[in-house]
Amino acid sequence: MSNSFPQVVTIAGSDCDGSAGLQADLKTFQAQKTYGMSILTAAVAGNSYGISNSIALSADFIDAQFQALASDFQIKAVKTGMLTDQATIKCVVSNLRKYNWPNLVLDPVIITKHQALLLAADAYQTLVTELLPLALIVTPNFFEAQKLSGLSLKNDTEIQQAAQKLQQLGAQNVLIKGAHDNPQQKVVRDYALFADGSHLWLESELIPTQRVNGTGDTLSAAIAAQLALGNSLKDSIKIAEDYTHQAIAHEIQVGHKYGPINHFI
Predict the structure, then answer these.
(1) Which keywords are on file for this protein (predicted)?
(2) Number of domains in the chain
């Protein structure tokens, strides 16, 4: 039957070293046994040491990619990654509304795990007011959740309050990824709050490694893939969390510093 195989699309930037961004998403989609497609928003020149250059694609070309996929394929889930600037976010929002693809997983890509700010003020505001309400689930890292909620997240209560604030901003479901920057830390705890008011803590062993590039991309991509396969959101999160943890735990030696996780696991 035409278009019967589960299809997922990532709307993200290209990381030329393959560790994160669109490349990490596509590797994850394949590992989850779904067919991955991509809408390119930007191209980044970088490696395991860092990023040296980047360029944003035009709104016209992003429009063309949306139209090309929508005219042929049956998209079952979508995830977003790097959206670069306000014009890109507005373009993506317009197309998501136009084509109405289901199961949008929003990885906000506002602040890196090294606390580098990635969006200008106007782009950040557009993401919050226009893109966030379209998402089935938003998956901020610890520092992104701090910025979005205005809370320090110093304890479980504040993390739960932050998730509630994100729902008040328009997110249906929220997954806040726990901090992992304390040398004495033994576990990582993520928190999920669902539209029906139920919630879930997910705990895993903290793996002491610098091979963590693409972790956030991989988690949100795996959630999208599992949704495309027909799993519930709760089950999709649990499967994605386990896959991402295993990808970190089973290192591959690529690059010199902040290397990629192991999507082959």
Answers:
(1) ATP-binding, Kinase, Nucleotide-binding, Thiamine biosynthesis, Transferase
(2) 1
